[in-house]
From TrEMBL:
CDD domains noted in UniProt: GGDEF
NCBIfam families with a match to the protein in the record: GGDEF
Keywords from the named record: Membrane, Transmembrane, Transmembrane helix
GO molecular-function terms, A-Z: diguanylate cyclase activity
PROSITE patterns: GGDEF
One of the Pfam families matching this protein, by short name: GGDEF
Ranges annotated as spanning the membrane: 20-39, 51-72, 131-150, 156-174
Stated name of the protein: GGDEF domain-containing protein
Organism placement in taxonomy: Bacteria, Bacillati, Bacillota, Clostridia, Eubacteriales
Organism this protein belongs to: Acetivibrio ethanolgignens
Annotated GGDEF domain residues: 220-343
C-alpha cells in the first residue's frame, strides 16, 4: 500500500462530499464579496486586500470544482484530480494564513486559518509530510505577514497556542491517514475474498460479471469460453467428493497455467475463460488442457468440453453467455473432450 493508493481510494469514495466543500467555499466567498462591496472602505489598503483575497479564492475554487468534476467522470483522469485536490488545498491553507494575518493585524484572531487547517487535515487530501510542511511554512508566513503589516506585539502565549494547535492538527492528520490506510487494506482484502473462489483460488462468478462490465465500457473484442468436466458426477460418485474437489483444483491450476489470470469458476464444475486471442487459438489451448489432464490423472480419465465464442464488442453479456453455452451444449452432444467454436 502506498499514499497514492490511499488518496485515490479516498477521493473516489468522497469526491462528491469534496465537491460540496468546494461549493460551500464558493458561496461563502460570494457572500463576502457582496458584503465587502456594500460596506468596505476601499481607500483602506487592508479592505482592498480582503476583497482581493475573496475574489482570488472564488476564482480558484470554481476552477478546482469544474476540474474535479471533469476528472472524476473518467477513471483515467484520477491522477489529475488528485493533483488538483492537493494543489487547491495547499493554496487554501496559504490563503487562510494571509486572511488570518489581516484579521490579527485588525485585532482579531486566526480563526480562518485554524478552521481551514483542521478541515484540510480531516479530508486526507495531502500526504502527512506535505501537510506538516505546508502548515509550518504557512504559519511562518502568517506571523511574518502580521508583523509586516504593523502588529509587532505578538506575545509568547500566541506562539505557544499556535504551536500546540499545529501539534494537534498534525496528530489528527496522522491518525486519519493511518485509519484510512487500514480501511483501504481491509476493503481491498474483503474485495479479494468476495471475488475469489475458496476451493480453486481462481476468480468467481462475481468477479467475472465485474470484468465483463469493464470490458463493455472499454469496448474491443475478446474470446469467451464456457467449459465443464465430462462425467464429473461419475467421478464424485465413484471416488468421493474429496477427489472431486481435487479434480477441480487441478483443472483450475492447468487452466491458469495456460490461459493466465482470466480464469473464473462459473459454478459447480463449470469454468469460464476470457482471452484476447482468436477463437481458433483458444480452442487449440483447450485441447492442450485435455492432454495435460489425461497425463495428470491415472485413476480415472478426466476431460473437459468447451464452448468458444469470439465477440465483436457489440453484444451484451447475456448474449455472450448464451452463445458460449450453446456452443458448450453442442460440444457435449458430440462426445467427450470436444471443443466447439460458435460462429
Amino acid at each position: 500500500m502506498n499514499s497514492k493508493e490511499i488518496f485515490e481510494m479516498n477521493l473516489k469514495k468522497s469526491w462528491r462530499e469534496y465537491e460540496v466543500f468546494l461549493i460551500l467555499i464558493a458561496i461563502l466567498e460570494i457572500t463576502m464579496m457582496v458584503y465587502g462591496y456594500m460596506y468596505f472602505n476601499f481607500q483602506d489598503l487592508r479592505r482592498r486586500l480582503y476583497f482581493s483575497s475573496y475574489v482570488f479564492l472564488f476564482c480558484c475554487t470554481v476552477a478546482a470544482m469544474f476540474l474535479n468534476r471533469f476528472c472524476m467522470k473518467n477513471e483515467k483522469n484520477v491522477d489529475i484530480a488528485m493533483k488538483n485536490a492537493g494543489a487547491y488545498n495547499v493554496l487554501l491553507i496559504f490563503w487562510s494564513a494571509f486572511v488570518s494575518a489581516l484579521d490579527i493585524s485588525n485585532g482579531g484572531f486566526a480563526v480562518t486559518y485554524m478552521t481551514i487547517l483542521a478541515a484540510v487535515g480531516s479530508m486526507i487530501v495531502l500526504q502527512p509530510i506535505i501537510y506538516i510542511g505546508v502548515s509550518i511554512l504557512s504559519s511562518a508566513c502568517m506571523i511574518a505577514g502580521v508583523m509586516a503589516i504593523g502588529n509587532t506585539e505578538l506575545r509568547f502565549p500566541f506562539f505557544l497556542n499556535h504551536i500546540i494547535f499545529l501539534l494537534v492538527v498534525a496528530a489528527v492528520e496522522f491518525r486519519n491517514y493511518r485509519s484510512t490506510g487500514e480501511q483501504y487494506m481491509l476493503n481491498k482484502k474483503l474485495e479479494e475474498w468476495a471475488e475469489i473462489d475458496a476451493l480453486t483460488q481462481v476468480a468467481n462468478r462475481r468477479a467475472l460479471d465485474i470484468y465483463i462490465e469493464q470490458l463493455k465500457q472499454n469496448g474491443g473484442c475478446f474470446t469467451f469460453v464456457l467449459l465443464d468436466v465430462d462425467n464429473f458426477k461419475s467421478i464424485n460418485d465413484t471416488f468421493g467428493h474429496e477427489e472431486g474437489d481435487k479434480c477441480l483444483v487441478s483443472l483450475a491450476d492447468i487452466l491458469t497455467q495456460i490461459f493466465g489470470k482470466n480464469v473464473f469458476r462459473y459454478g459447480g464444475d463449470e469454468f469460464a475463460i476470457i482471452s484476447f486471442e482468436s477463437a481458433e487459438v483458444v480452442a487449440e489451448k483447450m485441447r492442450l488442457v485435455n492432454r495435460q489432464l489425461k497425463d495428470k490423472h491415472s485413476k480415472y480419465v478426466m476431460q473437459i468440453c468447451g464452448g468458444v465464442y469470439h465477440t465483436e464488442g457489440d453484444l451484451d453479456e447475456r448474449k455472450v453467455f448464451e452463445l458460449a453455452d450453446s456452443a458448450l451444449y453442442e460440444a457435449k452432444h458430440q462426445g467427450k473432450a470436444r471443443v466447439v467454436i460458435k460462429v
